[in-house]
Each structure stands twice: as C-alpha cells, then as structure tokens.
Amino acid sequence: MNSDPTEPRDDASDIGEAHPEVEHFDAAISHVDESYAAGKMAAGAAKGILYSIIETLGTLVGDPDLPAHARSGYEGLLETARELRSKIEP
To answer: Where do the record's region annotations for Disordered lie (predicted)?
Structure first.
C-alpha cells in the first residue's frame, strides 16, 4: 500500500530498504541456472534475465553509499551471473 505523500514519514525506516537483499539475487541466479539446465528455460530468455541481473548488480556495486560488506556480496553474485551467462552463450 502506498503511503500518503502529504503525511510526514520517518526516513530512517527506509534505509534498510535502499538496496535489495543479496539473497534475492542469489535466488534469481540459481533459478535461471536450474531452469536452463533442466531445459525449462530457453537460452535467449536465460541470457535476457541474466543481462538484467548483471546490469542491476553493476549499478549497485557502483553505488558509493553501499557499505563494504554489501558490496562484496554483490560483487560475488555479479561474477557468478557473468560466469553463468558465458556458460549459456555458445
């Protein structure tokens, strides 16, 4: 539900929501890997999804406000997604 823009809000409560959880990206990459390996996802679809994940992770890694511990998690997933993409590409 959207909050009322005329009501004051506590900006501190949004700090944790500024960046997606690493686990969500890990689950997405794993899903693409498993679906492609099982033949349930076409190569083009898998590459398209991975492209979006890679672009998003690249943006997050480049965020200067991102804490170092979160950056290392995103960087690891970025490398995993790139490796999976190269495995799918002929």
So the answer is: 1-20
Q: Say how far apart CA 69 and CA 6 lie, in whole Å.
A: 36
Evaluated on CA atoms 88, 29, 25, 47, the torsion sign reads positive
- Cα–Cα distances in Å, from 28 out to 3, 4, 24, 65, 68? 29, 32, 6, 24, 22
Structure tokens at 43: 């190569």
* Whole-number Å distance between alpha carbons of 22 and 37: 23
Q: Are 28 and 49 in contact (CB under 8 A)?
A: yes
Q: Label residue 70 by pLDDT band (50, 70, 90).
A: confident
Question: pLDDT tens, 57-68?
Answer: 999 999 998 888
